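Hi R.,

Here's the chain you asked about this morning:
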Amino acid sequence: MNSWQRNAVITSGVVLSLAVRQVNPAQAAIVNYNLAGTIETGLLTGETFSGTFSYDNSLLTGSGFEFLDVSQVNLNFLSSTFTAVNADSNPTVEFLDGILLGLNFSTSSFTPEFLLMPAFGAMEATFSYIGTNDNGSGPVQYALVPEPSTVLGIIALGIGGFLVGRKREYH
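And here is the predicted structure, written out as tokens:
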């Protein structure tokens, strides 16, 4: 087998192993997400919000409507930071058939009061605020934070590809 065939077999094996990998409940882990958005209506139009949250997916069945408590939440809005301690009730993440709908978080101890609402039906996940004489909202974007092992695997594949290409240049 020449080097091109060997590399093709190795690459195919890695890709297939990643593609067919299933999440086993015994291998459940803490899942981390970033969130961000910009207010699109109201006097605070253009203001941004961002944050992170995590949850343990071991109780997620992937069937029907489900919600899980978050294990950590950190939100930044109007130069202030908010955690679960600032929430009106325990923050949760909501799912429909295993698909993340969003974070459910609200606080009335800050002016303006605000809340993050998961997607519902045709409505997208939303950040809304209610001030003394104003209210507004904006969409929330969620991004899964990759596991360190996934990042290391991608880096290793990239380095391997670079070295194979570099080796060919010298022969």
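One quick note: Helices lie at 3-20, 148-169.

Cheers,
M.
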